[in-house]
Design brief:
Number of strands: 13
Order of helices and strands: EHEHEHEHEHEEHEHEHEHEHEHEHHH
Radius of gyration: 21 Å
CATH architecture of the largest domain: 3-Layer(aba) Sandwich
Mean pLDDT: 91
Distance between the termini: 22 Å
Length: 372
């Protein structure tokens, strides 16, 4: 009988829920896997963002598993966390067995740990993908149950044992493979072709700090005739839409956007958190960006991600704490008024753009050779 390492891969479980940064690359891998004739099952969380993100993907099979978030190590909640991890692992083991999976891939976060652990207990090939420059606690722990660790950035390799990693890049969903025409993109959002456009996105759930900074920037942007496409996140959508309505800035404000290819194509510059998935997409579209790292991100990984891009000359970065007093408006005004700077940033971004990362991930899953 073929071992887990040599058995042909035909059925793949992908654990990818919790955030868009885990879910969208997982969808990209599933789409590539299906092109190869594999059957896929994507395990997602019960969060609202997962339900929003999977809309329009009727070609893929999803199943919800309980989300598990790790408390502080000395917290009284640690016992409950360990029990939930164990219980979710048992649930995932039944799901994986029923699906008759050949391999399990976790795309990161604690949604990945129980399925990968379950896959290892069943003797399957198991992998985790880490998109960031610094791995989080969940992936460091999940890696202990893995056949191999796949990386979005070379800078992350030093955190894992030598010989167990492969840099694949972060998979890009197929809907972003073709760049739409700018005019069609602007028309889709009801924006003008005559104005420069700022895309604002704080990750799949929005970003209060960026939202507040943009409200303070509106007077300056209005004076310059700039328009905004603002992805607010669901929590602050109504409030932010009211702020734009009372300003002189033309804007399309959305709680969430399924058509991110159109959003990137419509924009001249972007303001964004520095999550790995967002950075991958910005690089693919060579869209000049001002990065605002999430200040309390686990292991400060968003600041480290931003450093990879700023050191390559591919982005500007500013701390959220430094954005008060309308500073974001001045940064945007300067960048929008400097075409040469935007061209330099765009060229550097193209150098960081992913190749066919989803294909590289699938190749690794199918042909991984354990280190000697």
């Amino acid at each position: 009988m073929a071992s887990a390492e040599t058995k042909p891969l035909r059925r793949l479980v992908i654990a990818c829920g919790g955030t868009g940064g885990h879910l969208f690359p997982g969808i990209a891998v599933a789409q590539e896997a299906q092109r190869r004739g594999w059957e896929t099952l994507l395990l997602i969380s019960e969060k609202e963002i997962d339900a929003l993100a999977v809309q329009g993907h009727d070609d893929l099979r999803f199943e919800k598993v309980p989300a598990v978030a790790m408390p502080k190590l000395l917290s009284l909640a640690m016992g409950r966390f360990l029990w939930r991890i164990w219980r979710t692992r048992r649930h995932c083991q039944k799901v994986i067995q029923a699906f008759q999976a050949d391999a399990v891939l976790g795309m990161g976060g604690f949604t990945s740990l129980p399925p990968v652990w379950a896959g290892r207990s069943l003797g399957l090939r198991t992998f985790v993908h880490e998109s960031n420059a610094v791995p989080g606690k969940a992936n460091r722990l999940t890696a202990r149950f893995c056949t191999g660790v796949l990386l979005g950035l070379e800078a992350c390799a030093r955190f894992f044992p030598a010989g167990r990693t492969l840099v694949t890049g972060t998979p890009l969903r197929s809907s972003l493979a073709v760049r739409p025409e700018r005019a069609a993109a602007l028309q889709f959002f009801g924006l003008s072709e005559e104005k420069q456009t700022v895309l604002v996105m704080g990750g799949s759930q929005g970003a209060r700090g960026i939202n507040r900074a943009m409200v303070e920037a509106l007077p300056l942007l209005a004076a310059q005739g700039v328009q905004v496409l603002h992805l607010s996140g669901p929590r602050e959508f109504a409030e932010l839409r009211a702020s734009y309505a009372s300003s002189a800035v033309s804007a399309a404000v959305l709680p969430f956007c399924q058509e991110m290819g159109l959003a990137y194509a419509a924009a001249d510059v972007a303001v964004s958190r520095s999550g790995a998935s967002s950075l991958t997409e910005l690089a693919a579209f060579a869209l000049p960006v001002i990065l605002v790292p999430y200040p309390t991100a686990a292991d400060d990984h968003q600041r480290r991600n931003a450093e990879v891009f700023t050191q390559a000359g591919a982005a500007l970065a500013v701390e959220e704490a430094a954005l008060s007093g309308g500073k974001l408006g001045h940064l945007l005004s300067d960048l929008l008024g400097d075409q040469a700077a935007r061209l330099r940033l765009g060229a550097a971004l193209r150098n960081l753009a992913p190749g066919n990362a989803a294909a590289q991930v699938c190749d690794a899953l199918a042909h991984w050779t354990p280190p000697a």
